[in-house]
Amino acid sequence: MRKSEVLAAEAVSCLNKALCHLKDIWEEIGIPEDQRLQRCNVVKNHIKSLLDMMIKEEESLRKRLLSSIQTCRAEMEKLYLELQLPVFEEERGITMLQQEKNIRTQMEALMKEKTNRMQQLKVLLEQDQDLCDILCSMPYGIAPDSVPTPEQLENFREHINNQNTEKAKRHAEFKELKKQIILYMDELDQIPETSFEKDVICEDEDSFCLSRDNITSLKLLICQLEERKTENEAMCESHREKIQQLWDRLQVPQEEREAFNEHMVTSRKRNLEALQAEVQRLEELKLLNIHNVTDAIRSEIAVFWEKCFYSTDQRQDFAAYFSEDFTEELLSLHDAELECLKQHYEDHKELFDGVHQWEESWTHFLDLEKKATDPTRFTNRGGNLLKEEKQRSELHKSLPKLEKKLKAQIDAWEAEQGREFLINGQKFLQYVDDQWELHRIEKEKEKLERHLKKSKQTEEDMLYGTAVRTPTKRRFLGSATPNKSRKMCNATSSISSATSNSTMRSGFSGTVCRSPVPRPPLSANKGSAARTPVGSKPPHPRLQGCNKENEAQMKGSPVIGALVTRASPKCNTSLTSVASTYSQFVVKKLHNVAQVQNSTLQNSLMRIT
């Protein structure tokens, strides 16, 4: 039995004892029955009201517990929804008090979690607001009155970290941009003018709004300052070029130039003002020395005429160049013409450089061609002959390639400009063809001259004797062999035994023996032929064929260079007449060939001109 039941039984027993005691008191007093009934009724009502009041209080307690359970359950469900947690499962078979206690305990834990999350959210929101104020960015997309989830709080923290990183990055960028701005303004001698420039230069760095627009504005300001600096530098450079040009034209002393060197290096505002003042001073001085200045400009114009390959007609078009009336207007015309020529040269610099390169290569090629015909080139030491031949071969290959490249560039330029590209008043390709044609004609002319010279030498050989040439041989000191020495001695003794009418000339180029007596060909007397010095030039094949006609008359005659006896007058007359007839024939034939080649050469020159 429960203690409460025992206490209830004791309460009933006490009540019964009390009633019995009251009954005894009433009996002893002698209270009538009706009054006893009244008094018992009062006792009953009193006890009943007391019990009813107690029951009512307990009923009220039960209702409060039920209401509290319902309220806490509703609040707990709400917290579960806000915290996005799974619903708490209540324990079954427990009393109302235990149930109310469990619900209240769970609700307090949920409230604590909610408070913790809200505090974290508040801190993050404050940080985000500060970053938004500095970076001028939008706040993080989370409601400040809603309970965030742990994932949302983690994402919010990550966002804050990213914002802090962006802030540090922009702050470093801002400091670097500010440094550049201060540097540019210092170079330009400029002070902050706009409110934005004052905020950047004068205000505290931490208070500056690091928005993207402001960073973009800073970069734009730097670009503007760079452009202004570039413009100043360009203006200063232009003034410097003008000053240098005027110094050269006016022949300003070196001491005066050195005194102005400070402004010829830097490009600050004060330097620009000094340069402008110097240009104005020199312009005024130029007007006072207009004659000398005009002559100096004409020299520059002539240089650019050469660079741009102007023809005589193109140069004659600028009539002011030849005027002797030196006025300011004439000087202006020369300045304008010089600027036009400079612009023309700069616009077509690549083409002009290519033409200059071709001309240099062509000149080098002609020099190598000329050296190739020089007989003394074989005596050069150090491998120069091999180098020249290699260079000539390379130029012979590179010139057509360069011409092809220039042709493509000129075709593109003519298609773009709608006019012809002229070199000395002539189309470049025609100019190149003419140069090659002149080169070919020059080679033909040299070939003709060699042919004529050879023909003349043949005629002289037929009339006066054959020149025997011994080529010079290179020998090291002490390298002569006994056999060669003996041969040279025999040849010398054979030559020295010739008649007094023979003339002997010796040198490095060979030995020449001449005799006024006509001599028969070598085939006339092979058995009695004297020995020829080693390395002597053999007779010309054409002479051998021609001399066969006189073999019958020349039998028994001595060979060229051998010891001979004086021939009879009859034999001399016959040989002289034969040689004279053949020499006239050769001269006439060579003269006809020379006339034909000269005519061809003249026609080619007329076609080129």
Q: What class, by secondary structure content?
A: mainly alpha
Q: What form results from the Cα inertia axes?
A: elongated
Strand tally is: 5
Q: Radius of gyration, rounded?
A: 64 Å
Instruction: Give the low-confidence spans.
Output: 472-580
| Straight-line N-to-C gap | 149 Å
- Report mean pLDDT, rounded to a whole number: 74
Going across the biggest sheet, name each strand in turn.
Answer: 3-5-4
Oligomer: single chain
Give a quick account of the main beta sheet: strands, pairing sense, barrel closure. Answer: 3 strands, antiparallel
**What share of the residues does DSSP label as strand, in percent?**
under 5%
Order of helices and strands: HHHHHHHHHHHHHEEHEHEEHHH
Number of helices: 18
**Percent helix range:** over 70%
Summarize the structure.
It is built from 18 helices and 5 strands. It is mainly α and 609 residues long. A hairpin with a 2-residue loop joins strand 1 and strand 2.
What does this 3D model show about the protein?
With 609 residues, the protein is mostly helical. Among the domains are: 3-110, no CATH class; 150-267, no CATH class. Helices cover 71% and strands 3% of the residues. The chain is built from 18 helices and 5 strands. It has helices spanning 3-29, 33-83, 96-135, 150-188, 195-201, 212-250, 254-259, 269-288, 290-307, 312-317, 328-347, 349-372, 384-417, 428-464, 482-496, 541-547, 551-554, 569-608, and strands at 422-423, 426-427, 467-468, 503-507, 510-514. The strands form 2 sheets. The protein has a 3-stranded antiparallel β-sheet, with no helix packed on it. Strands 1-2 form a two-stranded antiparallel sheet. A hairpin with a 2-residue loop joins strand 4 (503-507) and strand 5. Helix 2 runs parallel beside helix 3. The longest helix has 51 residues, at 33-83.
